[in-house]
Amino acid sequence: MGRGDGSERVVSLPGADDAGTGILHVDMDAFYASVEVLDDPSLRGKPIVVGAPEGRSVVSSASYEARRFGVRSAMPVSQALRLCPEAIVVLPHFERYLEVSAHVMRIFRDVTPLVEPLSIDEAFLDVRGARRLWGSPGEIARGIRHRVQRETGITCSVGVAATKHVAKMASTICKPDGMLIVPEAGTDAFLRPRPVRALWGVGPKSAEALEGRGIHTIGDVLDTPRDVLDRALGSAMGERVWHLARGIDARAVSTTHVEKSVGHEETFHEDIADPAYLRAELLRLADRVATRLRAGGWESSTIAIKVRFADFTTVSRSQTLPEPTAVGQRIGDAARELFASIALRQSVRLVGVRAEKLRPAGGGGIALWDDDAEWRRIDDALDDASARFGKGAVTRAAFLGRKQRHDSLPSHPRPPKPGPGDESAVN
Predict the structure, then answer these.
(1) 8 A C-beta contact, residue 166 and residue 247
(2) Catalytic residue among 36, 116, 122, 299
(3) Quick one: which of 132, 133, 207, 328 has the fewest CB in 10 Å?
(4) What's the alpha-carbon Rg for the chain, to the nearest Å?
(5) What HEC string does 354-419 produce?
(6) pLDDT of res. 267
């Protein structure tokens, strides 16, 4: 699948066959780093690491010049600088990234209303209904690439295929600044030599389970009996891998975004060993999660926490609640109960709280009594104060006077919502 630094880049020649295609996956190239170069041309051609200069920070993005030294996103900045001592560390400017992302998404929606943003810097497009206006899928992809570069000054890579899965694989292989077309009839030939790790959804554990049975490529998957896949991965994952290896992906491009989870996490400036401080931090994060749930009209039935220790070992725990909730205190109680089940064998680098299995608020009907009535009134008051005076205007007394030893950068901000004229897509 390539090393992610462009050294194994594969692109289509002009006039490549695009028969049977219609799905595009467009991915901006080293997006954060590219925007920084756009705003400061003196950085062009240099190894750039986007992140805070402190060693506690992680890499939000890296230019391809830095990636060739092994620098990757989510890597500690200190490790990135060991790999590439000459790298230039640039502070992130997320409002600027959102601004450029909004421009790019408008370009996509000018071509087709069927746009599915995956993140701030990538999206699927279904262009099968845009042929009469803009030409074949390959021609549309070329036009999008040229327009993005002309209007924003940065580049993107585009995979063109018959399905979302293959289109996404193709865009990864042709990065940076490339286009790769996989005609429907050439899907099998394209997939067979690729590593099993290239299949969408096959993570390190699944890949190890397959490779331990001598299944290293997608071609090996095709030659493996279905029951062997099921034993290695479980029936659900085995079925998914069996279909994807054959280029079968029935998922349509969806313009409606449904929240699957809401979470917040914090990385501390210094490793924390004080359990009381960590419990208070979990409650603070729970309040932030609850605020977002209420703002979106959601309730959560499962709460999860993440704890990362000083050696980067990460532990996760989750529990299902008796009743779905968007109450900060209830989420905080669950988070701290989960935290109590984790042995603090060393200091903690990061903690996070996530609300999962969301459903529309009030979906369970009206109960005869509400044990959380008082907490709901408090949350309502906090929401009202935040709306009138800004976030952080009102906080729990327990948080007053605390030394702020945490730091967090939104490494994956959500794509901007469509403007008033972009009614074809709803996030």
Answers:
(1) yes
(2) 122
(3) 132
(4) 23
(5) EEEEEEECCCCCCCCCCCCHHHHHHHHHHHHHHHHHCCCCCCCHHHCCCCCCEECCCCCCCCCCCC
(6) 87
**What are 14-50's pLDDT values in tens digits?**
999 999 999 999 999 999 999 999 999 999 999 999 9
CATH of domain 261-407: 3.30.1490.100
Single-letter amino acid code for the residue at 273: A
Residue written as tokens 């939000």? 60
Residue ranges of the chain with pLDDT lower than 50?
Answer: 1-3, 365-369, 400, 404-412, 420-421, 423-427
Is 54 catalytic? The answer is: no
82 C-beta neighbours (distance < 10 Å), count:
13
Could you give the angle at the alpha carbon of 31 between the alpha carbons of 30 and 35, nearest 5°?
A: 115
For the chain, helix (H) and strand (E) counts, in that order, are: 15, 13
* CA 289 – CA 300 distance, rounded (Å): 10
Coil, strand or helix at 91: coil
H-type alpha helices, 300-372: 328-340
Q: How far apart are CA 297 and CA 386, in angstroms?
A: 17
Q: Can you tell me the distance from the alpha carbon of 314 to that of 58, in angstroms, rounded to the nearest whole number?
A: 15
Burial class from Cβ neighbours inside 10 Å (0-12, 13-18, 19+) for residue 13 reads: exposed
Residue 2's nearest CA partner among 154, 160, 193 is: 193
Q: If one looks up domain 192-245 in CATH, what number appears?
A: 1.10.150.20
Rounded-to-integer distance, Cα 352 and Cα 266, Å: 6
CATH of 1-185, one of 3.40.309.10, 3.30.70.270, 1.25.40.10, 1.20.1250.20: 3.30.70.270
Amino acid 355: pLDDT: 95
Range(s) within the chain of domains with CATH label 3.30.70.270? 1-185
One-letter amino acid for residue 43 of the chain = L
Task: Judge contact between 56 and 267, C-beta under 8 A.
Answer: yes
